[in-house]
Amino acid sequence: MGTQADDGPDLAILLAAAYRALTVRLADENRRAGVEGLRSSFGYAIRAIDAERPTVQRLAELLDVTKQTASKLADDMQRAGFVERRPDEADRRRVRLVLTAKGRGVRQRALRTSATLERELAEATDAASVQALRATLLALVERHGGLEDVMASRPKAPA
């Protein structure tokens, strides 16, 4: 009936295991860099803040959480040294979230790790397979309405 190989795990298990492998790799890279206080929930916020320097309200929209949840997350990230609050240059009544050097370092390590993983996959298989995987994942995301966020480097946190 389905397209699952008879001798292999189902796609959901493969995607979950791949996500776990990625998060472990990212955590290891940050640990090696001496980063302290980084929580897994900060990763999505760091991407969103890097993409557009949002207000807390906008961060809540980007992460699909309540304003209270986004505010607590921003407070926690600020205490840990990953973000700071700055007045909006166009409207000083508004406050924007901005990555600190520590937060930018986490983002840059994540981008480097992603590129490294992609190279490793291409070496283990071939470049065409990696491109096919990317196309397949984009099709999956697009089918479920998240393509705009992914293309803007601001994927929502898992529900």
Uncertain stretches of 5 or more adjacent residues: none
Largest sheet: 2 strands, antiparallel
Write down the overall mean pLDDT.
90
According to DSSP, the number of beta strands is 2
Q: How do the strands of the widest beta sheet line up side by side?
A: 1-2
- Kindly provide the radius of gyration, computed on alpha-carbon positions and rounded to a whole number of angstroms: 18 Å
The named CATH superfamily: Winged helix-like DNA-binding domain superfamily/Winged helix DNA-binding domain
The percent of residues in helical segments reads 55-70%
Description of the molecule:
The structure is a single chain. This protein has 159 residues and is mostly helical. The chain has one domain (11-151): Winged helix-like DNA-binding domain superfamily/Winged helix DNA-binding domain (Arc Repressor Mutant, subunit A, Orthogonal Bundle). It is built from seven helices and two strands. It has helices at 11-32, 42-52, 56-63, 67-79, 101-124, 127-143, 147-151, and strands spanning 83-87, 95-99. α2 crosses α5 (101-124). The longest helix has 24 residues, at 101-124. The radius of gyration is 18 Å and the shape is globular. The two termini are 29 Å apart.
